[in-house]
Amino acid sequence: MKLDIRNLSFEELGSYFESIGEKAFRGGQVAEWIYKKGVWSFDEMLNLPKPIRERLSVDFDLKPNTIAEKKISQEGTTKFLFDLYDTEKIESVLIPTATRTTACISTQAGCKFGCKFCASGIGGWSRNLTCAEILTQVLHVKEESLKHKRPLTNIVFMGTGEPLDNFDNLFKAIRIINDPKGIGIGARHITISTVGLVPKIKELAKQNLQIELAISLHGFDNDSRNVLMPVNRKYPFDELIDACREYGKATKRQITFEYIMIKDVTCTDKAIVSLKKAFRGIICKMNLIPYNPVSEFGHKTPSREEMLSFKNRLEEFGVHATIRTPRGKDVNAACGQLRHSAMSEKNKMTPNEIQSDVI
Ligand code: SAH
Fold first, then answer.
1. What is the band of 318 on the pLDDT scale with cuts at 50, 70, 90?
2. Residue 338 near ligand 1, beta carbon < 6 Å
3. What is the C-alpha separation between 246 and 268, in angstroms, rounded?
4. 215 CA closest ligand 1 atom index
5. Is 292 in the pocket of ligand 1 (CB under 6 A)?
6. Which atom of ligand 1 is nearest to the CA of 293?
7. Residue identifier of the C-alpha nearest atom 9 of ligand 1
8. What's the confidence (pLDDT) of residue 359?
9. Tens digit of each residue's pLDDT (9 = 90 or more) over 239-266
């Protein structure tokens, strides 16, 4: 199989051209065709001499994904199901709202972490996505949004998988997404959501990037988080909160805590008291996510009144909280509803196997 050219950083692209006796600036031209003009073949790169285009086709792949399914929800959220070369399947979502146009991107085929409310971990984990596979999703979603005359404004790494568990490929892709000569989306408009991998959060703090960090907290103390998120046994609640505090101090950036509202489980009086205590000294806001039903779990979504009252009580306690509007629920594109529906059972690990191994 040929290397996908979208796996090359801009420096690597320049070096490639030098290695074949061409000028490095050709790399910039190729990048512009791929990331700005959105072409899917070397033939279309008209300002490159034909022999170079032919050479590129021999050395690299630049294919679109196979779209296995495209579903559009009533409010315009579009979910793509893509087939990858090895029959793995991943999902990406275009979310247009009044003020922004967001691409929700997957970083792994499946998920290792087995959170007890999320569909993405049910089918287990197969593999990391390559830098090219991450970028190709963005290119498809961008193409779709441009059809509706809406330039992409935001990227959220909230699709299937754990972004910080695929650190190198993710950051290679982010550099191209962020680069004005690439997709050109400002760092502050790029959000990484994580289950809370403490060493990676510490590593991120050192890099002092301007990207947004969102932590899937979901539990209000160690016990409640242990029940909902097996990863908490490896990186307990207090350690995670400490890492977030340090992250805020080092980067001066506000962290977002994502907190799922599950009836009688996470929306309780005890939760409010505990969260207020935990957030002491952290510059943060809370993004409350109404639980989106996943049939395998027995949870219930609280009523609208219960959710509003939970939010208001948090705010009275001095915690800044917003409620996330569910998007794409009717096409199973909302948070936690993206699945790993891969066909290749052979390599797949179930969350339980992985927990003893990795977590
Ligand atoms: N692995 C990363 C990226 C996924 S982001 C992470 O966990 O942060 C997807 C977001 O949707 C996470 O905050 C996740 O916890 C949340 N989520 C998962 N299942 C959900 C559900 N059933 N209802 C609402 N939100 C859910």
1. confident
2. no
3. 28
4. 8
5. yes
6. 22
7. 158
8. 41
9. 999 999 999 999 999 999 999 999 999 9
* This prediction's pTM: 0.94
**Does residue 345 register a pLDDT over 60?**
no
- Give start-end residues of each CATH 3.20.20.70 domain in the chain: 66-331
For the chain, where do the domains classified as CATH 1.10.150.530 start and end?
A: 3-61
CATH architecture of 66-331: Alpha-Beta Barrel (3.20)
Q: Which CATH number fits domain 3-61: 3.40.50.150, 1.10.150.530, 3.40.710.10, 1.20.1740.10?
A: 1.10.150.530
Ligand 1 centroid to 334 CA: how many Å? 9
Ligand 1: centre distance to CA 289 (Å): 9
Q: What's the rounded mean pLDDT across residues 87-113?
A: 96
Q: Which atom of ligand 1 is nearest to the CA of 258?
A: 13
- Interaxial angle between packed helices 167-178 and 131-147, expressed in degrees from 0 to 180 and rounded to the nearest 10: 40
Q: CB within 8 A of 277, min separation 6: which ones? A: none
Reported as a pLDDT band with limits 50, 70 and 90, residue 358 is: very low
In 84-146 the beta strands, taken as DSSP E runs, fall at 89-96, 101-104, 108-110, 125-128
The SS3 of residue 90 is strand
Going from the Cα of 318 to the center of ligand 1, the distance in angstroms, rounded, reads: 25
CA distance 290 to 288: 7
Closest CA to 315 of 340, 290, 279: 279
Q: What is the pLDDT of residues 3-40, one digit of tens each?
A: 999 999 999 999 999 999 999 999 999 999 999 999 99
For residue 175, the surrounding DSSP H or E stretch is helix 167-178
Q: What is the DSSP annotation of 195-235?
A: S--HHHHHHHHHHT---EEEEE---SSHHHHHHH-GGGGTS
Ligand 1 proximity of 260 Cβ (cutoff 6 Å): yes
